[in-house]
Predict the structure.
Amino acid sequence: MLLGIYSLLSASFFVAMDAVDVAFTEAAVGAGISTLLMLVAITMTGRSEHPTRHKPLLALAVVIVTGSLLIYGTLDMPYFGSAEAPIHQHVAPRYINDSMQEIGVPNIVTSVLASYRAFDTFGEVVVIFTAGMGVLALLSVVRHSEDNAKIDSINQSMHEQHLILRIVSKMMIPFILLFAFYVQFHGDFGPGGGFQAGVIFAAAILLYAMLFGMSTARRVINQTLIRILAATGVLLYGSVGVVSLLNGKEFFDYSALSADPVAGQHLGILLIELGVGITVASVMVIIFFNFADRRDYSQSKESEDL
Amino acid sequence: MIIGLYNYWVVVVLMMIGFYIVIAHGNLIKKIVGLSIFQTSVFIFYISMAKVDGGTAPILAQGIEQYSNPLPHVLILTAIVVGIATTALGLALAVRIKEAYGSVEEEEIQNKDNQDC
């Protein structure tokens, strides 16, 4: 809970620092998914901590020494907000001055993310995909039908309540999904893009799953389909790069996609953001569903033991 | 003016809080929370470096001369989503450890391992 407030605070800090795209991501991730994930994990691993610490004084001493060394190191750093800082001298002016002619997209963050540094972003998407697969490998359970019936009855009794919450959220979910699509396709012009849209889309699905129970949500969202979609997003991203290779340009050089280089850039960015959005949304859903399944599974095992 | 460096000090303080949690607590979940605080401090470090006085958000518009640096924004934007995915992986490992050992305390896990040997 405190972590959720913490990430909302850092999101507003990012707005103050002019990083609207980053703030958007942090708000979407922190307010919904990371808090929920933490809570599920805590219910599964036990609420209270063992009171013993490993030599807190020694740890404190290490932390203080490291901290003072780091602060001593900052004395040579450029001042906050200074326009002469080295970071602003090298590639940033090129992005700010030339990206409109080269890419034709007003949001510089999107053009750097999806075009200048497309290879980097590809790596990030693969990391997200791999993490999703890791969670799948660690937590996935084979479901048996008799378990299913038991869990269904637990869910049914739990979700008979909270009627007002359910009806209000039911009305809101379509708008959240619509907003996710807006963020996805408007990322060229305003803050937004595949990463944010994917997280918002996943948040809508998680809201549905929380209010109507896992078994209902599992009926709506096919797990196999979600897994295939997660891979499709990465493949879509990679294949855009391969297409530009086949057309005789460099990997992720979108000007190969169309006769007009700027139109090619637009098409490339659109496809890549779509790939990112699909992968991020499905990986988030996979992670959440696997955590929830695992919790149901261990609960039903415990009740059998008793 | 030495006070112009305060953004780095905030980052250092946050980073040290996270670091302390990681080394002083035996609970694996708390270690992951500490790591994510550590991670946020790095995000804040990058974003505060990108800020230019009088600059605005890096979305091109008419009549605006000064923009903040877009490059750190791109790096951190992806890092946040990657961060949540890897945190989920860490939590998944903690959950499996809990199932295998019945505890997420470092000491208890080590004791059990020693008994088995």
Remarks:
- DSSP finds four helices and no strands in chain B.
- Chain B has one domain: 2-50+68-116.
